[in-house]
Amino acid sequence: MGRKNRVEDYCFAAGVVILSWIMLFADAPYRLDFKEQISIFLLDADRFSWYLSNPAVVSSIAGDWLTQFYTSRFMGPTLSVILFAAIIIGLTGFFRKAEPKRPDCLVLMTFPVLLEGYFITFPNYPVSSTVGLAISVWAAVGLASLKDSKLSFLIYGLSVPVMFVIVGAHAFTMTLLLAFLKRKDGIGHMLAIAIGVVIMIICGRLYNLTLLQTFLWPVWPGYINPHKALILLMPWLVLAVMILALFYERVMDARWMRTLYPLIIIFGTSVSGAFKNDELERTVKIGTLAYRNEWKEVKEMASSFKYKGNFYKNYYWNVCNAREGRLADELLRGGWGRSSDILFLSTTKGDPYFSMMYFTDALLEIGDVSQATDCALLAQTVMPGHYSTRMLRRLAEIAVVAGDYGVADKYLNILLRTRNHRKWAQELMDDIAKDKIPEQYLKWRSRTASNDHFFHQGDIRSSLSIIASESPYNRVAVDYLLCSYLLDKNVNTFVSLYDRYYLNSLDRIVRVPELYQEALLVNVDSRESLMETVQKYNLSEKVVNKFMNLMEIRSKDSNPHTVLSQDAMGTYWEYIMLTRFNNADQK
Amino acid sequence: MKNRIIIFASIILLLTGCAHRTASTGNGMFPDYSDVTIPCNIAPLNFRIAGAGKISVTVKGSAGEYKFTGRKGLVKFPVGKWHAMLESEKGNTLSVNVEYNGKADAFTWTVIPDPIDKYMSYRLIEPAYEVWSGIQVEQRDMESFRTVLLGDNRNAELCCMNCHTSNRNGTSFMHLRGAKGGTILNRNGKLLKLNTRTDKTGNTVYGDISADGRYGVFTTADITFAIHSRVDMKMEVYDKRSDLVVLDFDNLTVTDSPATSGDEFQETFPCFSADGRTIFFCRAAHHNQPDSISDMHYDIAVVEFDPETGKMGDKVITIVPAGEKFSFSHLKASPDGQWLMVTAAQYGTFPVWHKESELWLIDLQTGNIETLPKVNAYGADTYHSWSSNSRWVVFASKRDDLVYGRPYIAYISPDGTAGKPFLLPQKDPDRYVTTLKSFNLPELYAIPEIYNARETAAMYSKVKTEQVQYKP
Which of A355-364, A496-505, A565-574, B241-250 has the lowest mean pLDDT? Predict the structure, then answer.
């Protein structure tokens, strides 16, 4: 291959690395950031023994350490592409050792990195897996340098279990690379693969892993569906790349190949574009902004969220408005559908841990500390690795709200040992020591229930009823309760609850939202009952006029799609007439 | 036995006399090992002092003086030297002087010649009990820091793994839930997977093994949970219904009794007396739960048991009425037949989340009740287990952070006097600080288990379940 081709080759590989950086920087910053939220780096006795009790000790420790820096928008993509570059250079170096007489083939060596770049955009995909791939490739480079074939074969055999301990599943990548290296030694390469596979399975058994876990670790199989099949293919892709590289020189000398270069780049870009999971990125972003208390941005994002049926967008729209005391005012400007899809997030076993993490935001606003504790503990329990700095912070906050400072101390002590949360933990510890509890926590505390009642996990309506009945001036809880019945079109229960919480109570101190006024008129069926309702609830002239206008049109035309005049659009009457629950999140 | 355990009415007065005390951690020493009573074979009591640099420890006993050092605030005693010291100082009270950062602390360690059982098992589980993602059952060597994994639900379809109940005469069991689950029974090294549910009796839950290892007495309960609205109370686990059954491990049969079945009462936490002729258990009149759970006050009751026929008697006698202020659970009779240790809480049957719950000791000869103020602390002291020589108990306590259970060990003298409990020592005590798992259901036993997590997984996924037959 000519010098010019070689330069083009290097340019291409550099282009892939730069392109990866740009795409991670532009398209996946919050997904990379999220990796830090659902992991922790500690090297204390318990965590270290956890590392030792699983394979991939070195790559897990290194990966978790690196993950700490992923909170920076610049560092996440940068560290990722450094790992990618290490993989590309390692693969190239390995091929040079295996086939010293053949030219470099950086173009092909970028293929595994493209796939790895796709994996790393998944919040559940650990950085330690990418680290493991890099280490295994470089281990193969080292082993390929051995000269004595008898000795090297012995070392290959020993290196598989050692690498399994060091990098986990990617020990198999190294095994396949060694099989490629030994392919000319008769059955040597087959033997290398067979020994590698058997040793890995035995090692997996020693670690009490299933077969699938053995070939995926440190990726947790249950969290990466349906992509685990692709992840399992990675070692084979590395092998395929090596085999293709054998024919690379012949292909590259062909004139048509150079014209194919731009097409490869376009193809690579479009594949990366296809990999771009914009909805996931936005879902992670909106939750991350809430985690950072950037509520103005959360609201802006929820109002402009382009995936209309997204639960989290609807949920956060309402949390933002509840924080501002405008839940009912803005309810119908968000998603339409059942309360379980619009106001609340489902948090039973089998639901995504995103829901459990995010739902604590609303629960604390409501003052439902018991359910918030349960959600935070559940989220931590069901996420991969079972350690989340974000949930540790939340659990510490919940404990402070509940006045359980001993419990808060437990979580703050752990966070004190982390790089990113040390300062926050220390400040909160100091606040507790000085009895200067932050205002926000005191506000949440004031909304909690003081009498004891029982409710079942996930039964948010029961807990809302308990909290609202105990603190009728907890407007957030009352509004969530009333709005949940409105969204579910249960107007009769709404009216009875309105009478209980608003009539001659909250309506004396706050303006009654138009939504409630509209709902109070839903059951009106005569002029007498209208007068009675208007008088009882002191409804505004504007709402009454709109209602009378609607009634007048309706007396002439019973088709719900044509009776709605312009001023009835966006009202509860439109909602109740046009919403069908089998298409819950569509108007 | 029944006649020997008449409990006087005066104990009811005693019941009201308990008081809480708060755990102290001394001058920044963690765990608090000051003035504790320890067995002569316990692993080194490694400790950490917050903010300390180099630490010098001088231990003075009748047989000599022993010097140890620590650095970076951590004292790790060499295992060999530690055991040599305890061996020489059996029965003595040691003066311990700790110097660090120009300060000095002095306290004592009382070394009891009676050893603690060599093994302890516990379940490691996140405190969100309604979901389990990673449960391990571990066996710990009490003389060192070695552990063996007895069960790991990662390779058993993330099933729930219940308590491993200690081996008595070569018999032990562990419940595995899930689609392929069953009760793993170890009988003298032979493992069986049993389906203990029959047409007439439910699945077995909490249980105890008779001293000869032939019988097991179990609760069959339909367990569920609810959440408290009050922020200082977390979760309430309760039984919708519960009865008692006896399993004959020789013949693989299960039997019940009208006296301990039915809807009028709920029976739970049974245990055999030392002679195997009496079954102690907790019993409460049924109320609708969870709404009336605060009315569920479990008494301590007994029913006779005939080891020859394997049948329970037909008469239940309440030996300690709970009244309206208490509820008993986790009954465990000491192997020497002298004591019955129980957990007392305000109400209900699952004291793990009851911060007020504490351990009481009932003298089965006199009926006297000790409320063990030296042992108990605020934060839930529950689920205890006796050492086979009846001198030591281990129990799970949440006294340190109110959420995560940790195994504490206490000495019980022949006259029922208790020593100050101490936390199960770890190679690095920081393990307790950063772990997000509870050390749940600790059990002491003298003979090591013959299986490990791989075999448990194989039992779960590959071994056919044997059906236990109902015997009227």
Answer: A565-574
The four Cα atoms B115, B120, B126, B128 give a dihedral, to 10 degrees, of -90
A247 and A391 housed in the same domain: no
Of residues B131, B291, B426, nearest to A349 (C-beta): B131
Chain A: closest CA distance from residue B327 (Å): 18
* A325 in the same domain as A242: no
CA-angle at B349, arms to B347 and B352, nearest 5°: 95
- Indicate which CATH number applies to the domain containing B250: 2.120.10.30
Q: Which residues of A touch B236 (CB under 8 A)?
A: 454
Q: What is the pLDDT of residue B23?
A: 37
> pTM here?
0.88
B152, B226, B403: residue with CB nearest A455: B226
Q: What is the pLDDT of residue B28?
A: 82
pLDDT digits (tens, 9 = 90+) for A31-79: 999 999 999 999 887 788 889 989 999 999 999 999 999 999 999 999 9
**Least confident piece of the model among A355-359, A496-500, A524-528:** A524-528
Same domain, yes or no: B280 and B171: yes
Inter-chain touch B433–A42, beta carbons under 8 Å:
no
Q: Are B97 and B107 in contact (CB under 8 A)?
A: no
Q: Three-state secondary structure along A544-580?
A: HHHHHHHHHHHHHCCCHHHHCCHHHCCCHHHHHHHCC
Residue in A381, A401, A456 nearest the CB of B133? A381
Domain membership of residue A459 (yes or no) is no
A382 touches chain B (CB under 8 A): yes
The answer to whether A46 contacts B430, with C-beta atoms less than 8 Å apart, is: yes
Q: Which residues share a beta bridge with B59?
A: B66, B96
Scored b (16 or more CB within 10 A) or e, B283-305 reads: bbebbebbeebbbbbbbbbbbbb
| A205 → chain B, closest CA residue | B454
Asked if residue A554 and residue A540 are part of one domain, the reply reads yes
CA-based nearest residue to A213, from A196, A226, A231: A231
pLDDT for res A514: 94
Residue numbers in B near A410 (CB within 8 A)? 400-401, 403-404, 433
The more confidently predicted of residues B278 and B232 is B278
pLDDT tens-digit map of B56-67: 999 999 999 999
Query: Is residue A56 left, alpha or beta, with left meaning phi > 0 and alpha meaning psi from -120 to 50?
Result: left
CATH number of the domain at A319, please.
1.25.40
CA A157 to chain centre: 39
- Same domain as B165, residue B65: no
Contact between B68 and B100 (Cβ < 8 Å) = no
Which segments of B65-160 are extended strands (E)? 65-70, 74-75, 93-100, 103-112, 119-125, 136-141, 147-152
Distance in angstroms (rounded) separating the CA atoms of residues B94 and A209: 46
How confident is the prediction for chain A on average, in pLDDT? 87
Domain containing residue A238: 3-276
Best CA proximity match to A575, nearest among A515, A497, A503, A504: A515
In chain B, residues 144-173 whose CB comes closer than 8 Å to chain A: 149, 152, 154-155, 158
Residue B159 has a CB neighbour count (10 Å cut-off) of: 18
At A384-437, the pLDDT tens digits run 888 899 999 999 999 999 998 988 999 999 999 999 999 999 999 999 999 999
Domain membership flag for residue B11: yes
Residue A374 sits at the chain B interface (C-beta within 8 Å) = yes
Contacting residues of A for B231, CB less than 8 Å apart: 369-370, 401-404, 445, 448-449
Asked if the peptide bond before residue B115 counts as cis, ω within 30 degrees of 0, the response is: no
Note whether A370 contacts B: Cβ–Cβ < 8 A. yes
Residue of A nearest to B454 (CA): A208
Determine contact, residues B41/B111, Cβ cutoff 8 Å: no
Q: Do B69 and B166 sit in the same domain of this protein?
A: no
